[in-house]
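Hi everyone,

Forwarding the result from last night's run.
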Amino acid sequence: MQSADFEEDLYKNWFRRPTLFVACAWFLLATAGLAVLRLGLSELALLLRQARLRDIRGWTGPAADTLYQLGVLAFPAAWYAARHPGVEQAMRLRAPHPLVAAHAVVLGAAGVALSMCLSAWWTLLIESAGGAPQGGTAAPSTPAGLAQALLVSALLPAVCEELMFRGGIMGAWERRGSNRALAVSSLMFAALHGSVEGLPVQLVMGFALGYVSLRSGSLWACAIVHASFNAGALVLSYLLNGRAIVNIYAIMASGEALGLFVADTVASTALFALMLVWLKRVCERLKLGGPQLSQPDGAPLGPPELVVLTAGILTAAIRYMEDILAICGVL
């Protein structure tokens, strides 16, 4: 039996987590922040060029991405945690068990195989509907470029995005229950990217990352999965000169070895699902995870939360609309 003091401490720590208004505000900040930073740095580059001081056009993109990850995503959640003692329990800011950390590395690598299959099928569906997929970001072509990409596009997002989404936003929505928090944070994580082509992978990985955090009781466990997934995708793209998805899609479109690819899709999906089940059993055996609120708050969102959440959804919708118009050849 747990003592009354333990229950009281749990209750106090639970409600030190971010409020739903804060979580909605963070989501709006996340969806709008990158566009604002890129616009601001582009204007600065134009002013510097006109004044003949310095040409920084080649740096605006990487600089905006780095400032966005550190300043817009990581800083608000880290600042909130530093200013609210006890919230580290709600945000699961604890080191993962070594066995879980090792499992997280393998799970991220398995996610790469699954994502390649999902992306290829989704690309085929988009083209069959008359769209023209735009493709992802360019693959690094040199060892130095790969090292930079691993830092900026793998490690940095793994830490910063997890602090914001699985730490702050999912932690806040757990007031409504862990299952709802997992669903909402996964949807918000996918919406953050504003990419139609990446939507299936982002939804699947968003759910998996939240699931790992809930089961392991450690935000850093899902950050390891995230970093392993991003790094695996980058290294594979580098080794194949960015043609991994293109080659798979060409096989599907031509009908060559299509049956083999279907089997590969089934196998990669089954492997990823089994690894999540195995993670659950490992965490249960190690008695990891965290406390759950027995009676989640079921009150409807108030006007302030609804206004801010709607603004975030509309901002994400604009980005999706731009992506859809590009796929349709309008932009």
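The two ends are 63 Å apart (CA to CA).

Cheers,
N.
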